[in-house]
Amino acid sequence: LKTMYSFHQITTTMLLIVTRVVAAQAQEETTSRAARENSKPFYLRDIQITDTLTLPFSPVTVFVMLLSAVMISGIFSAPKSSATASHILLDGKDAQDKLEKMKKDIKGDYTKFQNLAKTFSKCPSGMAEGGRLGVFTPGMMVPAFDKAIFSKENNIGEVIGPIQTSFGWHLIWIEERKLVE
Prior knowledge:
Elements: H1 2-39, E1 47-48, E2 54-55, H2 59-76, E3 82-90, H3 95-106, H4 110-120, H5 124-129, E4 132-136, H6 143-150, E5 159-165, E6 168-178
Antiparallel strand pairs: 1-2, 3-4, 3-6, 5-6
């Protein structure tokens, strides 16, 4: 009985020693890891949200990932068609007939087109800019207008229309157009 008690005492003591050694090594590793982490500049440290929650990447990593995403999206996004155009907008019952007469008067003269837009167009762009709408891409205008502008059948530097949209009736002049297939 006395030998077993000694054996039990020895076993318990050894187990206690091993436990303390393992705990000391774990503490040393934790301290070493914390010291290593704290020795890094802040922008290379893991992102600490709370005392217990740390994201396993640094602010620099986040920045590089975001920059890469932006660059990759630019690489894979297809170039878009674009156009620069002007228009004359009229509404009312006789708008289509008035625009047909204007179209005959214009006869390919952009200056006449601009003057008519300034005088008669119901669109604010008509009064200030001679009907100029600026540069736009497909989908920025109402569908009927887009179809007229980006159709290959309609030529640059010619009067197109009258075209009806939800805003009224339009004569359109395409100044520039870049079509991307």
